[in-house]
């Protein structure tokens, strides 16, 4: 899921750099800026585009399995990167809530191959998201350990996630779970 304006901290030589998401735009070349109307779907869950999108202004909603999981309005928010890097269909639908301006990179695979700084920036952003998710799950594990509810299973879920072989990941929903977990 794309998030709002995060900062990505990383070491550059011996200095720590704090780079907001809007700085990602300085790495972007070869794409086009365009406007999209409210209600327009940018990405559709289960389909592939091969495109990468950066929000310039407006509000987009992220919908997973029919439920809105986020509304994003921070300039520089990135969409389509998970599908691109996992080489699988989009994991969520992204729809314009308001009129939006976006920057669209049509051949995103080529863009990433030709722009290692942008690729590294995306990797850092995704690592930060994973760290936040792991921290949250670890906190749930600590809070609900021994309570005998389904939340006490968080430890098992974390362990299963760590041990998944490198292949296409499809976590599923309450209705359809991933058979590997």
Q: What descriptive keywords fit this protein?
A:
4 helices; 27% strand; single chain; 181 residues; alpha+beta; 2 domains; Jelly Rolls; 4-stranded antiparallel β-sheet
Question: Spans of 5+ residues with little confidence (pLDDT < 50)?
Answer: 1-19
* N→C terminal distance: 21 Å
- What is the CA-based Rg, rounded? 18 Å
Q: How many distinct helices?
A: 4
Strand order of the largest sheet: 3-10-5-8
Any idea of the CATH class of the largest domain?
Mainly Beta
Largest sheet: number of strands, sense, barrel closure: 4 strands, antiparallel
CATH superfamily heading of the largest domain: Jelly Rolls
CATH topology of the largest domain: Jelly Rolls
The helicity comes to 25-40%
Strand content: 25-35%
CATH architecture field of the largest domain: Sandwich
Q: Write down how many β-strands occur, each being a DSSP E stretch of 2 or more residues.
A: 10
The secondary-structure class comes to alpha+beta
Which sequence of SSEs, written as H and E, runs from N to C? EEEEEEEEHEEHHH
Please tell me the total number of domains: 2
Give the averaged pLDDT, no decimals. 77
Shape assignment? globular
Summarize the structure.
By secondary structure, this protein is of the alpha+beta class. Helix content is 28%, strand content 27%.
